[in-house]
Design a protein that fits this description.
CATH class of the largest domain: Alpha Beta
Structural class: alpha/beta
Shape: globular
Length: about 425
C-alpha cells in the first residue's frame, strides 16, 4: 500500500488495514524503529536508550514540534555517522504526522511517548499497521480505551511492551518473585503510594509557536485555545482533557509492581475514596487522594499519594518495594538478594527486553494485559473520587455496575475525525 493510499484508508478513524508490516525481516537482522513523540521522555529517556543497543536502528522520528523532530533526527544521524558513511544505515526521517511514519513498510516497531490522550489511538493505528509497540505509561485516557487497546493488540498479533521500566529492575524482579512464590503466605493487605499531582497552569491564550502543529497535538482531545502551559511542561500531565494526572501517570509504576507480584493477577472490585481537585488555574486533575479498594477475595488495598512504593503484607510477613528501597519483615524474606538497589528504573534493560520479545515473538516483561490491569485501577479510582461514591467493578463483564453515571465516565467522546 503506497503512502497516499494508507493515509486515505487510515484517515481520522485510524483504521489502517493490517497488511502493512506483515512481511517481517528475519530475526537475524536489525529491528527498525520509529519514534512517535520525542519530547523529554521520548527522546532523552527512550530514544537515547535504544540508540545504545546494538540490534536496532532508528529510521524515523515524529513530533508536532518541528524543532524537536529536526533536532533528534539530526542527533540520530550523527550517532550512526560511521555506519551511514559506509552505506550500512538508511538515515532518519522526520515527520509531523504519525500516519506517514506508520505507512513505511520498512519500520518494524514504534515507540510511542506522546501525551497520554494519544497513547491508545496511536497504538491502535500502529497495531493495525502491523507494527510492534513500546508504549509509555499510562495506557489510556479511559476504561473503554484500555479495553479496546487490549483487543486490537491481541487481534493484530503484535508485540506490546508497557513503559513501566521498574519491571526490569533487578531488586524489583526479585521481590515480586518472592511474593509470587507464596513466601508471604496468604496476602492480607496491600498499600500503594504514588507522588501527588500539582495545581496551577496559566490558561492565558497565546498564538502557537512557529513550527508547531497544534491541531495535531490536540488530536482527539476537545478544541481549546493554545497556551504554553497546556502543551509544554507539566500541563500534559495535569489537564483532564489529556490525562487523569499522577493517579495514572505515576501510579502506573507502583501499581505495575503490584501486578507483577500478585500470584493471581487481578484488580479490585470495589473503589471508594476522596481526593483534592484544583479550584483555580489550568490544571484540573486529582492532586492528592486516598482510595480504599477491595479485591474479590476480600483483601483490602489502600491507594494514596506519597513516595513511589508498594507494600504487600501476608500471614508470614511483608515486603516493601520502591525504586531505591527493598524492605521486608522478617528480613529473611529478602536475604537472598545480593544485587544493586537502584533509584532509577532500568530503561535500557526494559528496551532490550522489548527487542528480544520482538525477535522471539513472545510477550515481554510488561504485556498488554498487565498494562490494562494497572491502568484500570487508576481509572476506577479517579471515577470514585470524582463521583464521591462506591464504585463496583464486575471483572467478568469488565463494566461498572449499579451506577449509570459512573459507567458513562468509563468513556469519553473523541474529537472528529479521530477515533479508536
Amino acid at each position: 500500500m503506497e503512502r497516499r493510499g494508507f493515509l486515505q484508508t487510515a484517515g481520522g478513524a485510524l483504521t489502517a488495514g493490517a497488511a502493512i508490516g506483515q512481511t517481517r525481516r528475519p530475526p537475524s537482522e536489525r529491528i527498525a524503529l520509529g519514534f512517535i513523540g520525542v519530547g523529554t521522555r521520548g527522546a532523552d529517556g527512550l530514544l537515547k536508550a535504544f540508540l545504545t543497543l546494538g540490534d536496532c536502528d532508528c529510521l524515523a522520528v515524529c513530533d508536532p514540534f518541528r524543532d524537536r523532530r529536526e533536532k533528534w533526527a539530526q542527533a540520530v544521524e550523527e550517532t550512526y555517522g560511521e555506519r551511514k558513511r559506509s552505506g550500512a544505515y538508511r538515515g532518519c526521517a522526520a515527520y509531523h504526522d504519525f500516519r506517514e511514519l506508520l505507512a513505511r513498510r520498512d519500520i518494524d516497531a514504534v515507540v510511542i511517548a506522546t501525551p497520554d490522550h494519544w497513547h491508545v489511538p496511536m497504538a491502535a493505528a500502529a497495531a493495525r499497521a502491523g507494527k510492534d509497540l513500546y508504549v509509555e505509561k499510562p495506557l489510556g485516557l479511559t476504561v473503554k480505551q484500555d479495553l479496546a487497546a487490549r483487543r486490537i493488540i491481541r487481534e493484530s498479533q503484535v508485540i506490546f511492551q508497557y513503559g513501566t521500566q521498574q519491571r526490569n529492575a533487578p531488586h524489583i524482579r526479585f521481590a515480586c518473585e518472592q511474593v509470587r512464590a507464596g513466601n508471604l503466605g496468604k496476602i492480607r493487605s496491600i498499600e500503594v503510594w504514588a507522588p501527588a499531582g500539582s495545581p496551577g497552569g496559566d490558561p492565558t491564550p497565546a498564538p502557537p509557536p512557529e513550527g508547531f502543529d497544534y491541531q495535531m497535538w490536540l488530536g482527539p482531545a476537545p478544541e481549546a485555545p493554545y497556551s504554553t502551559d497546556r502543551c509544554v511542561g507539566a500541563g500534559r500531565y495535569f489537564i483532564y482533557d489529556y490525562s487523569i494526572g499522577f493517579l495514572a501517570g505515576w501510579g502506573a509504576h507502583p501499581l505495575d509492581v503490584l501486578d507483577g507480584a500478585l500470584p493471581e493477577p487481578a484488580i479490585p472490585v470495589e473503589y471508594e475514596g476522596l481526593g483534592a481537585l484544583p479550584q483555580t488555574g489550568l490544571f484540573d486533575t486529582v492532586t492528592h487522594w486516598f482510595v480504599r479498594c477491595r479485591f474479590a477475595d476480600g483483601v483490602v488495598m489502600n491507594f494514596t499519594h506519597g513516595t513511589d512504593y508498594t507494600r504487600i503484607e501476608g500471614t508470614a510477613g511483608w515486603i516493601g518495594i520502591g525504586r531505591a528501597r527493598l524492605e521486608a519483615h522478617p528480613q529473611s524474606l529478602i536475604a537472598g538478594y545480593q544485587g544493586p538497589i537502584q533509584g532509577f528504573p532500568q530503561t535500557k534493560a526494559h528496551c532490550q527486553d522489548f527487542l528480544d520479545a520482538v525477535r522471539a515473538r513472545k510477550d515481554p516483561a510488561s504485556p498488554i494485559e498487565s498494562a490494562v490491569r494497572s491502568d484500570l485501577i487508576s481509572q476506577l479510582s479517579d471515577i470514585a473520587i470524582r463521583t464521591g461514591r462506591l464504585i463496583r467493578w464486575d471483572p467478568r463483564t469488565e463494566t461498572v455496575t449499579g451506577d449509570e453515571t459512573a459507567a458513562r465516565m468509563c468513556a469519553r467522546p473523541m474529537r472528529a475525525p479521530w477515533t479508536v
